[in-house]
Amino acid sequence: MSHRDPREEMVDYIPSLRAFARALTQNHAAADDLVQDAIVKAWANIDKYKVGTNLQAWMFTILRNTHYSNLRKHRREVEDVDGNHAAKLAEKAPQDSAMIFNDFKTAFMQLPVDQREALVLVGASGYSYEEAAEMCECAVGTMKSRVNRARTKLAELMQLDEGEDVITTEGTALASLGGSAVA
Amino acid sequence: MPEAKNKRGNSASELDRQIEENLRRAYEDTLKEAIPDEMAQLLQKLKSQGEGASK
């Protein structure tokens, strides 16, 4: 049995790469740039991909690494702490249960980036804690705790009345990232 | 980090359900979007470059 050339399969993962990138960047244009960067890197490093393993997970990992490496280089690009983007997203929501969905999106964008990626990997993409931990290079327990904290925080934020101020955690997340891994 | 509390204990499972549902919805909405032309073109370009290089 022969596998398809993994490079031919990459196109199939573009939608999920975009979804993951949006959770990391909070900005659609930046997310698409990130996806393109990840595609170029994946293509160039295709010899490092083990045929038969999960290509999506491999590409997610590349995308994620690219994102954090870009962050360290251009920290300014990710700043969207005023929630404009979350508000923009919210406008586009369809009608049914739109309020809850809007609340959710706004709350999601207030989570620290490590919790957002944990939720997308485990909660939305269906990766196991083990797989997600491997992709994020953290312990399984850390991944579980990120998912739990994210869910707790979302529940908390979604219970707040509209307009109630919430301290955004994004700045802290970025600061700690930059602080821990400055090249 | 302060411990998050459930202010309304009896709605916790309902909230969990909503979170799960909305998380998937947000993700799946993105999956339904058409692939941008520039990404399709990028793949095409990479492919043709590779063919050029291997010949």
Give the topology, please.
The complex is a heterodimer of chains A (183) and B (55).
Chain A (H helix, E strand, L loop, with lengths): L5 H20 L2 H17 L10 H19 L10 H8 L6 H12 L3 H12 L4 H7 L4 H20 L10 H11 L3
Chain B lengths: L11 H21 L4 H18 L1
Pfam family, one (chain A): Sigma70_r2
Protein name (chain A): RNA polymerase sigma-70 factor (ECF subfamily)
GO molecular function (chain A): DNA binding; sigma factor activity
The CATH topology annotation of the largest domain in chain A reads as Arc Repressor Mutant, subunit A
User: Helix coverage percent of residues of chain A?
Assistant: 55-70%
In CATH terms, the superfamily of the largest domain in chain A is: Winged helix-like DNA-binding domain superfamily/Winged helix DNA-binding domain
Q: What would the principal axes of the Cα set say about the shape of chain B?
A: rod-shaped
Written as H for each helix and E for each strand, in order along the chain, the element string of chain A is HHHHHHHHH
Helix content, binned percent of chain B: over 70%
| Separation, N- and C-terminal Cα atoms of chain A | 44 Å
GO molecular function, one term (chain A): sigma factor activity
Keywords (chain A): Sigma factor, Transcription, Transcription regulation
Family (chain A): Belongs to the sigma-70 factor family. ECF subfamily.
Pfam families (chain A): Sigma70_r2, Sigma70_r4_2
What does this structure look like?
Chain A: Residues 104-154 form the RNA polymerase sigma factor 70 region 4 type domain. Chain A: This is RNA polymerase sigma-70 factor (ECF subfamily). Chain A: InterPro entries: RNA_pol_sigma-70-like, RNA_pol_sigma-70_dom, RNA_pol_sigma70_r2, RNA_pol_sigma70_r4_t2, RNA_pol_sigma_r2, RNA_pol_sigma_r3/r4-like, WH-like_DNA-bd_sf. Chain A: Keywords: Sigma factor, Transcription, Transcription regulation. Chain A: Belongs to the sigma-70 factor family. ECF subfamily. The complex is a heterodimer of chains A (183) and B (55). Mean pLDDT of chain A is 80; it is low at 89-95 and 161-183. Chain A is built from nine helices and no strands. Chain A is globular and about 50 Å long. By secondary structure, chain A is an all-alpha fold. Chain A has two domains: 1-78, RNA polymerase sigma factor, region 2, helix turn helix motif (Rna Polymerase Sigma Factor, Chain: A); 84-183, Winged helix-like DNA-binding domain superfamily/Winged helix DNA-binding domain (Arc Repressor Mutant, subunit A). The N and C termini of chain A lie far apart (44 Å). With 55 residues, chain B is mostly helical. Chain B has one domain (11-54). Chain B is built from two helices and no strands. Chain B has helices spanning 12-32, 37-54. Mean pLDDT of chain B is 78; it is low at 1-10. Classes of the chains: A mainly alpha (183), B mainly alpha (55). Chain A binds chain B through residues 7, 10-11, 14-16, 18-19, 22, 32, 35-36, 39-40, 43, 100-101, 104-105, 108, 119-120, 123-125, 149, 151-156, 158-159, and chain B through 1, 4-8, 11-12, 15-16, 18-20, 22-28, 30-33, 35-36, 38-40, 42-43, 46-47, 50.
